[in-house]
């Protein structure tokens, strides 16, 4: 999955069909549609990954992590701590 600019064009934000979201560069499994939730940002949002090694993260600033594909390193966006459908969940 790759993300668009903040100004529009994201086709997966309102996409809720059953399935697995994969990396746009290497097809590595990232997120299940079961963990997807509606969010006000222009990007799709998930509460968890398919596998523990689906993504890698590094902290850019307190509470904000850069998220990359766990296999090829493709940039996927950011995770924001305590930003999710219930307290304590994260948005990818």
UniProtKB/TrEMBL annotation:
GO biological process per UniProt: innate immune response; protein repair
Cofactor: Zn(2+)
Record localization: Cytoplasm, Cytoskeleton; Nucleus
Record-linked Pfam families: SelR
Alphabetical list of PROSITE patterns matching this protein: MSRB (PS51790)
Keyword tags: Cytoplasm, Cytoskeleton, Immunity, Innate immunity, Metal-binding, Nucleus, Oxidoreductase, Selenocysteine, Zinc
InterPro entries (alphabetical): Met_Sox_Rdtase_MsrB_dom (IPR002579), MsrB_Met_sulfoxide_reductase (IPR052150), Mss4-like_sf (IPR011057)
Keyword Cytoplasm: yes
Residues annotated as transmembrane: none
Example GO molecular function: peptide-methionine (R)-S-oxide reductase activity
GO cellular component, one term: cytoskeleton
Annotated MsrB domain residues: 1-92
Catalytic activity as recorded in UniProt: L-methionyl-[protein] + [thioredoxin]-disulfide + H2O = L-methionyl-(R)-S-oxide-[protein] + [thioredoxin]-dithiol; [thioredoxin]-disulfide + L-methionine + H2O = L-methionine (R)-S-oxide + [thioredoxin]-dithiol
Family matches, as PANTHER family: METHIONINE-R-SULFOXIDE REDUCTASE B1 (PTHR46755:SF5)
Main function: Methionine-sulfoxide reductase that specifically reduces methionine (R)-sulfoxide back to methionine. While in many cases, methionine oxidation is the result of random oxidation following oxidative stress, methionine oxidation is also a post-translational modification that takes place on specific residue. Acts as a regulator of actin assembly by reducing methionine (R)-sulfoxide mediated by MICALs (MICAL1, MICAL2 or MICAL3) on actin, thereby promoting filament repolymerization. Plays a role in innate immunity by reducing oxidized actin, leading to actin repolymerization in macrophages.
Family: Belongs to the MsrB Met sulfoxide reductase family.
The name this protein goes by in its record: Methionine sulfoxide reductase B1
């Amino acid at each position: 999955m790759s993300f668009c600019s903040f100004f529009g064009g994201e086709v997966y934000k309102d996409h809720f069909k059953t399935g697995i979201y994969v990396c746009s560069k290497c097809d590595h499994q990232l997120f299940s549609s079961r963990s997807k939730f509606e969010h006000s940002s222009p990007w799709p949002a998930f509460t968890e990954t398919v596998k523990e090694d689906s993504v890698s993260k590094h902290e850019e600033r307190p509470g904000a992590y850069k998220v990359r594909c766990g296999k090829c390193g493709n940039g996927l966006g950011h995770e924001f701590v305590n930003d999710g459908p219930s307290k304590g969940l994260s948005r990818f």
